[in-house]
Amino acid sequence: MDQIMQKLQAEGNSTRQWSGIWDEVKTKTVSYVTDPEIWTGLLLAIIKIVCIYIAARIITKIANKALQHMMVEREKSPLKFDTRRTKTIGKLIGNIVTYVVNFIMILMILNQFGVSLAPVLAGAGVVGLAVGFGAQSLVKDVITGFFIIFEDQFAVGDVIQIGTYRGTVEEIGLRVTRIRSWTGEEFIIPNGTITQVTNFSINNSLAVVDVMVSHETDIDVAMRLLERTVKEYYEKDTNMVKEPELLGVQMLGASEVTLRVIVECKPVTQYAVARKLNAEIKRAFREHGLEMPYPRLVTYHKTERAE
């Protein structure tokens, strides 16, 4: 009986002990939640974080506006700078400024939560070293992007072809290059995979126009009309750099004679110039009664003589 009483007494003491601990935790929690200093400090921290975020966004916008203003002033300068390179470097600097401001903003926000910045910076250095060894493709992308910009291989606004992708360069970053095709697709290509680039925007382009006339057409008349037409149109089109040149008869076909005209144009304008020249030539040939060739079939019937 004494053992049972001792056991019940021990259980009662344990229950009272746990009840006391629970009451103490509840009291401390209520006092912590209702402490005005805690809420005041939390509210001040939230206000500081919001101010830091807004300040970072304002600094980024001001820096981008200043860069755009500098680029415009540089283009207006009497000293002629390469506008392609200017736009490319401007976008790159804008990206770097954005990354730096965001990194500083994150550090300042962590500081508001009581995080010491010295261990964070030391850890970032260790993580950067680990990334340098582990993410070799990322390092390769960054190094290749740097040399693309340093060597001026291509710039923003250029029409280039990388492998099977062809389009206008929208952005050159340290890691990726973005190009947009003429049908609207945007290709994002890691810089480390760029091994060969064809740039169509550096030198003048050549438009090749082949005009076909029928065998019955007087070649001399057709060539004189063709030469006069393209030279007259040269005075109207500012995309032509030099006067068109009539090379002569390019090919003799089954039902047509091909005359070839070439003209040097501004970069990436050869297709538009060729289309306009084709329209002008078609109009001139129709006005002067020169017909375009069409397939013809001649059938000979052999009559056998009966014996």
Automatic annotation (TrEMBL):
Keywords annotated in UniProt: Cell membrane, Membrane, Transmembrane, Transmembrane helix
Coiled coil: none
GO MF annotations in UniProt: mechanosensitive monoatomic ion channel activity
Domain Mechanosensitive ion channel transmembrane helices 2/3: 95-136
InterPro entries assigned: MS_channel_1st (IPR049142), MS_channel_C (IPR049278), MscS_channel_2nd (IPR006685), YbiO_bact (IPR045276)
Localization in the cell: Cell membrane
Top-rank lineage group of the source organism: Bacteria
Transmembrane segments: 38-60, 92-110, 116-135
Domain Mechanosensitive ion channel MscS positions: 138-201
Protein family according to the UniProt entry: Belongs to the MscS (TC 1.A.23) family.
Protein purpose: May play a role in resistance to osmotic downshock.
Name the UniProt record assigns to this protein: Small-conductance mechanosensitive channel
